[in-house]
Amino acid sequence: LEPERRTGSFLMDGEAQAQAQATATLLVVGGSKKVDWDNVFRGASTSTGHAVHVEVAAWDELSLVSYGDCGRVVAATPRNTSFTPDFLLIRSACRGIYGQDYRNLLYAFAYANVPSVNSLESLLVCQEKPLIYSRLLRLKYKLGADFPLIDQTYYPNWKTMTFAQQFPLVAKLGTVHAGFGKMKINDEKEFDDLSSLVACQGNYLTTEPFIKWDYDFRLQKIGSHYRSFQRTSDNWKGRGMGSRDRDVELTEKHKMWLEEVSATLGMDILSIDGVHSETDGKEYILEINDSAIGLVERHLENDLENIRELVLLHMSQALEKKNHGTTDALPSDVATLQQRLAAAEEQVTLLRVQLANTQKANVPPVPAKSAGLFSFLW
Predict the structure, then answer these.
(1) pTM of this prediction?
(2) Given CB 3.0 to 4.6 Å as the disulfide criterion, which of 120, 219, 299, 303 pairs with 272?
């Protein structure tokens, strides 16, 4: 964007400035073309009295610059040559199966601290599958058998693929979606063949046991609204013309999973995907998805209303903090606060273990620096 556009965005005559102050701009990135976001937020206003103006663009249609001196992003879309978003709703993945990678645009929003659903921190974590798994692993350590996360092995490159724990297994290359980059490996010979392909691709690989399932499931959370689905399919990936899904009642156990993941990663829109083993009758959690989750067509209208409700809530909170000059304060959404509390509790536990080990060795303990704890809080 040209410098004069930047100036024009911030310096207006009195009447235009008053009008701009009464309007807040929501930028919706991506999502299904079937959804009319202008209609979803038609007549919407925040609790601060701002009318909501909607801008919509796919990642490849966005052009933006983030300025550190004023903490703002100036963006351009096919509908508008220049505007400053007050809030973001991310409805499309930054990375695609054909090499699309728009993380630099996501970094620009994070650079300017633009408030969003989901939080930008969680969206950044969700750009890499190993980072997501590491957060889920914390929950497995915390909840034990009550959080049946599938075992996984991470290979940073093909050179480390010298040993696999068991067969058959499922190998996943890098961070991909919708069943792409995923293979079933039946024996050591196939695993060795796969390593030669990974060598040419240059990405990391994760593997997990292959579960022969009779149905897979998806648990969905949008704010305080929950759904549960089961799906059967002739394809082990759960795809294809033979797949059939149905609504099922959400159990307290599944609701707990959603709430724990939401709190740990700071996510208000998410889904959990897993499978039910026909061999041992157990459920296994495979992965989670962020605010770009697909919505089931038969519930689309209701889910969009729930998204509208959630966005207006968080948009109002962000504008309230901005109006009172408290943009650097702790986020007011419960999920993010719970996430930081969990991290602090984890650090306290580690310090206690360290202290106990030191005392057993009869070595005077080294005082823990409080800054180490507060770094987790902030």
Answers:
(1) 0.79
(2) 219
